[in-house]
Amino acid sequence: MFSTKGRYALRVMIDLAQQDSDDFVPLKDIAERQDISKKYLEIIAKEMVRGKLIVGASGKHGGYRLVRRPEEYSVGEVIDLMEGTFAPVVCLACNAEECPRADKCKTLSMWKEFYEIEKEFFYNKKISDLL
Question: Helix (H, G, I), strand (E, B), or coil: what is residue 105?
């Protein structure tokens, strides 16, 4: 299950893409359009800036904008940044220690297959597909 953080980050990305502008979009405008708390969006936007999905500027004409074109962003990279790994089980997560039961595990191949399907789905879906 995805958290509000991941879902709201996608809504921010879509909102910024819909503006189709090189201008910075004030966060208060995004918050109003998306009916999301501006305070909560500030936390999300900071993470997205750190993850290099968007860029921010302060001041009178400040706000946020996309770094790339909407078709250059995958939904997967947004969710990955905000939610963490897509791995359905701990042993498939990045940097996971090798499971001592891996050679005997009857379910590992199923989890690997599911993981690949999930990643493929979200990484092949672009922000531009959601506009």
Answer: coil
First to last CA, the chain: 23
Q: How many whole angstroms separate alpha carbon 105 and alpha carbon 99?
A: 9
Beta carbons of 9 and 64 less than 8 angstroms apart: no
d(CA 49, CA 16): 13
38-50 helix and 75-83 helix, angle to the nearest 10 degrees: 110
Residue 98 has pLDDT above 90, yes or no: no
What domains appear along the chain, each with residue ranges and CATH number?
Answer: 4-66 (1.10.10.10), 74-126 (no CATH)
| Half-sphere exposure (Cβ direction) of 56: Cα atoms closer than 13 Å | 18
The model's pTM is 0.88
**Rounded to whole angstroms, how far apart are CA atoms 79 and 3?**
10
Nearest to 74 by CA among 5, 126, 28: 126
